[in-house]
UniProtKB/TrEMBL annotation:
The protein's name in its UniProt record: Basic helix-loop-helix DNA-binding superfamily protein, putative
UniProt xrefs under SUPFAM superfamilies: HLH, helix-loop-helix DNA-binding domain (SSF47459)
Residues forming coiled coils: 47-77
Keyword Transport among record annotations: no
Predominant localisation class: nucleus
Organism superkingdom: Eukaryota
Organism: Theobroma cacao (Cacao)
Keywords (A to Z) from UniProt: Coiled coil, DNA-binding, Nucleus, Transcription, Transcription regulation
Xref: InterPro entries: bHLH_dom, HLH_DNA-bd_sf, MASH1/Ascl1a-like
Amino acid sequence: MENGLGSSRINRCLIERERRRNMKTLYANLFALLPPQPSKMSVPELVDQATAYVKHLQKKLEKYKQMKVQLEDKRATAYTIRPPVLNIRDLGSNLEVHLITGLNMEFALSDFISILQEEGAEIVSATCHHTGDRAIYTILSQAIYPRIGIATSSVHERLTSLIC
């Protein structure tokens, strides 16, 4: 019987030794995850430090989530509040039309071209370029009859009424 008790006692000692080794490895892994410390810490200090660090990281995470939401709100607002900008340059017998709009602006470029043609212009080139949340349209035209020219004020008025 004594032999059986001694054997179970040895088993308990081996199990306890393995448990302590395992705990030591886990504490070492935990210590490695913390920011560098100036000196060695006891196990209770290590656990307190880890707890404080996790709480600090949770607060930082919440702050970043709030910043993300604010930035997304600003970005959504920026896409919806962009009024179109129309710029017309009179180059003698040529006319250059620049239109900058948000991507949410819906209109037909063919309407712009029709207005220019009705005002006596012939389209030389028309381009569209998307950059970020904006679309930039450039139309270069020349007067069909150079002596008569193109009525810039009338073109500006009609194009403005089209985009507003």
